[in-house]
Design brief:
Gyrase A, domain 2; 32% helix; 19 helices; 752 residues; Topoisomerase II, domain 5; 4-stranded antiparallel sheet; Topoisomerase, domain 3; alpha+beta
Length: 752
């Protein structure tokens, strides 16, 4: 059977077409080339004009199509075809997506494209197909292109070398910061938020006047980001300053909202601005999902009443709800608050990727503007000199018009004769020969002299400009001032949209509770440390099921908004939100999954947190102290060490402090009663000795008011009370051994 050989050639073959290549070096070389291409030609913007290659090519193609702001629109399909065919050899959809974004006033702070037709919306709907939409440039785009045909920038061959494209645009508009940019390259990324153009121009002019100005000085002009969708930045000025000094940081951005009075004490919250790059429809879906999941107990309903402007209505559960707490819970759980990263990674001088500060970016943009000014001035100077040369030839011709006419009529080589007779240059002789008869009138000579004098004066001004750094910076400052005035705060486009405010202070506990549906539960703790929460307040615990060998340790009523405190034999207190407890189906979960608890430790007790209470903690060997319950709450999985115990001792009891006396009974059945005042109140420690034992340790402890007496309950459920007189022989000072328990005291050695 004939066909291609499936046997690969041997490594020692003599085929001159086969060249062995080291795989490692080949991969490194190719991947580096790919990485550099991605960084330079796709993902990172050029600092000088703030554009990536695809955007720059779109702008250049629209200029060639003469789609100026004062001209008519052209189909986007035509623009995309021009860009793809001549400059950008990639997919038409990627080019159209870039074009669409440049026209979206909710995506770009200062749109570069004026779109006509459906260009998408803030709900995330796509633009219409390119055959339906039309576009032209905006005034901002013309600012970026100003002077491009005056040798302001370099051009390079296009991908097929049939045309030329600009390496960078002249960039009279501070586009890199005004419109921002984002992109992911290989090993690096960029994220620059939009800013207010008038503020940037003010900072740039200040930097021209004060070259040593610091970032802090510039922030007197640039307040911070200015997003096209508005919103409120809730970061402090110190954090903002540090971000602009280092080029890295981020901004907390919140939606703008207000309370709308509905009459009769009812109200609703209306959101009028949402954070940048958030799809409104997805945001409302998320809020609705949280409502159905009962994670927003303060919210009754959400409605989208938006038309041209954004209007999202949030209806509270009741008129007594705190609007601030309602919004804080939404900020925590939804994209009504986002964090926009700042990573000012740009192509410095069009070649070097670098993370720059605000000052460095403005400095390099100003240097680019100076380079553009010098190139345009030299180009204009060359044009003036060429024109003056021609005008000089015209004047000689007018002064000798009869002789010039004779030479042209009679000589075989009039050009050479004119050059020899009147000492004209080749350019002058050619211009004289190309004169029209209608230009030979007497008035033309006057106009030529007038133009000659005007151009001579302009030439002197340009030469003076090129010779003086001060004049150059003065001119740049004047140009930037014109841009600042054009996009000033009194204009609709230039008006600042994003404002700044401090985030209101709310108790974190209140916010946490605002995000939890309040429901009654019964917390079940097993002997082996398994926890669960049964719905409702159960009275009968006999039907509860446990794993084999396990049983009920304790059960108590709580609400889903409560914090559950767990005290362990290691003297630690762990805090668990009641809403985080596993449901009643099954046996629950072991506490060690919820918190970082040592294997050798066990649960002493658990209870609902009440910050107003005080607790008495006691170790097995009889040491103890009083601690405020507000001091023992832990905010981490590691818990909080409250009682210091060393093996073989361990924490044994934790009871609520009531009354003025303490009764303690040991495993030796000796009981001691003494005033609570003898027990110190500590935040953490070992405590003091409460009762002395020869053998064993503490069995039970109770605090009580002496006025009402000491009460205990026996195994039959009967209650006994002993007054001060009846307890006289057991009342002593702290740290003594005590006396045998009175008659009738339960054999379990517990008060009940």
């Amino acid at each position: 059977m004939m066909g291609k050989s499936l046997v690969p050639p041997s490594s020692g073959g003599d085929d001159p077409k086969i060249e062995p290549v080291d795989l490692k070096s080949a991969l490194e070389e190719r991947y580096l080339a790919y990485a550099l291409s991605t960084i330079m030609h796709r993902a990172l913007p050029d600092l000088r004009d703030g554009l990536k290659p695809v955007h720059r090519r779109i702008m250049h193609a629209m200029r060639l199509l003469r789609l100026n702001p004062d001209q008519g629109f052209a189909k986007c399909a035509r623009i995309v075809g021009e860009v793809m065919g001549k400059f950008h050899p990639h997919g038409d959809q990627s080019i159209y997506d870039a074009l669409v974004r440049l026209a979206q006033d909710f995506a770009v702070r200062y749109p570069l494209v004026d779109g006509q037709g459906n260009f998408g919306n803030i709900d995330g709907d796509n633009a219409a197909a390119m055959r339906y939409t039309e576009a032209r440039m905006t005034d901002v785009a013309t600012e970026l292109l100003a002077g491009i045909n005056e040798d302001a920038v370099d051009f390079r061959p296009t991908y097929n070398e049939e045309d030329e494209e600009p390496v960078v645009l002249p960039g009279a508009f501070p586009n890199i910061l005004a419109n921002g940019s984002s992109g992911i390259a290989v090993g690096m990324a960029t994220s620059i938020p939009p800013h207010n153009a008038a503020e940037l121009c003010g900072a740039a002019i200040h930097l021209i006047d004060n070259p040593d100005a610091s970032v802090e000085d510039l922030l007197r002009f640039v307040q911070g980001p200015d997003f096209p969708t508005g919103g409120i930045v809730v970061d402090g000025r110190d954090a903002i300053r540090e971000a602009y000094e280092t080029g890295r940081g981020g901004f907390r951005l919140r939606a703008r909202w207000s309370v709308e009075d509905q009459g009769r004490g009812t109200w609703q919250v209306v959101v009028t601005e949402i954070p940048y790059q958030i799809q409104k429809s997805r945001l409302i879906e998320k809020i609705a999902e949280l409502l159905l999941a009962r994670k927003l107990p303060l919210l009754e309903d959400v409605r989208d009443e938006s038309a041209e402007d954004i209007r999202v209505v949030l209806v509270p559960k009741s008129r007594t709800v705190d609007p601030g707490l309602l919004m804080e819970s939404l900020f925590k759980l939804t994209e009504l608050e986002t964090r926009f990263p700042l990573n000012m990674n740009v192509l410095s001088r069009g070649k070097v990727p670098n993370v720059l500060s605000l000052r460095r970016i403005l400095r390099e943009w100003l240097d680019h503007r100076r380079e553009v000014l010098l190139r345009r001035s030299r180009h204009r100077l060359t044009e003036i000199e060429r024109r003056l040369e021609i005008l000089g030839g015209y004047l000689i011709a007018y002064l000798n018009i009869d002789e010039v006419i004779r030479i042209i009529r009679e000589e075989d080589e009039p050009k050479a004769v004119l050059m020899a007779r009147f000492e004209l240059t080749d350019t002058q002789a050619e211009a004289v020969l190309n004169l029209r008869l209608r230009q030979l009138r007497k008035l033309e000579e006057f106009e030529i002299r007038k133009e000659f004098d005007s151009l001579t004066a302009e030439k002197g001004q340009i030469e003076a400009l090129l010779a003086s750094d001060a004049r150059q910076w003065q001119t740049i400052s004047w140009e930037i001032g014109k841009v600042r005035d054009k996009y000033g705060p009194e204009t609709d486009l230039g008006r600042r949209r994003t404002t700044f405010a401090e985030a209101p202070e709310h108790d974190l506990g209140d916010i946490h509770q605002a995000m939890i549906e309040k429901e009654p539960i019964t917390v079940i703790v097993s002997q082996k440390g398994w926890l669960r929460a049964m719905k409702g307040h159960l009275q009968d615990h006999s039907n509860l099921a446990f794993k084999e060998g396990d049983s009920l340790k304790l059960a108590f009523h709580a609400q889903t908004t409560d914090k559950i405190l767990v005290f362990t034999t290691g003297g630690k207190v762990y805090t668990i939100g009641a809403d985080r407890l596993p449901g009643g189906r099954g046996h629950g979960e072991p506490i060690r999954i919820m918190v970082d608890m040592d294997n050798e430790q066990a649960i002493v007790t658990a209870f609902v947190h009440d910050p107003a209470r005080k607790l008495l903690v006691v170790s097995h060997q009889g040491y103890g102290f009083v601690v405020a319950e507000s001091e023992v709450v832990a905010n981490t999985r590691k818990g909080k060490q409250v009682m210091n115990v060393k093996a073989p001792d361990e924490a044994a009891k934790c009871v609520r402090v009531t009354g003025d006396h303490l009764a303690i009974i040991g495993e030796n059945r000796k009981m001691l009663v003494f005033p609570l005042a003898e027990v110190p109140e500590l935040g953490r420690g070992k405590g003091v000795r409460l009762q002395r034992y020869r053998d064993g340790g503490v069995s039970d402890i109770k605090t009580f008011a002496m006025e009402t007496g000491l009460t205990w309950t026996d195994s039959a459920g009967r209650e006994f009370t002993r007054s001060r007189e009846e307890l006289a022989e057991w009342i002593s000072v702290r740290a003594t051994a005590g006396r045998m328990a009175p008659k009738g005291f339960p054999k379990t050695g517990r008060f009940g």
